[in-house]
Design brief:
single chain; alpha/beta; 5-stranded mixed β-sheet
Length: 158
Amino acid sequence: MQKSRDNYISWDECLMRMARLIAQRSKDPSTQAGAVIVDEHNVIYGLGYNGFPRGIEAGSLPWERDGEFLDSKYAYVCHAEENAVYNANRAVKNCKIYCTLFPCNECAKTLIQNGIKEVIFESDKYHEVPAFVASRKLLDLAGVKYRQYESEESENHK
């Protein structure tokens, strides 16, 4: 009997690659974020990426990061984590979410309210920004676990 192969990727790597892939759907010129929600068996419940709400064309609103609130993307963009919840094919209670970026405070509230139990994120580049400090506080108080994932791909290339 032939032995199974040993060098297959982990579920964490597989699902983070999916989050990176769905992020490529984003039309945002500066940030492409993706998220994948799965149950305890790693069955996908929802996918999301950052972008304007459905039905709004990519060129209809500003993509700028700076300037007045109404003249920047922040007034209009739905984040990847929110979209993954909105796009879920069933309730996401007790699920985990894989995110290319650590979720902001608004996304943390959405995740908590919908019963997400764990957040696995790749980048924490906004760690000291107040919205992300608040996010960690919210997640801690709600008992939502979170951890940073380092890609097996980068480990294999060291």
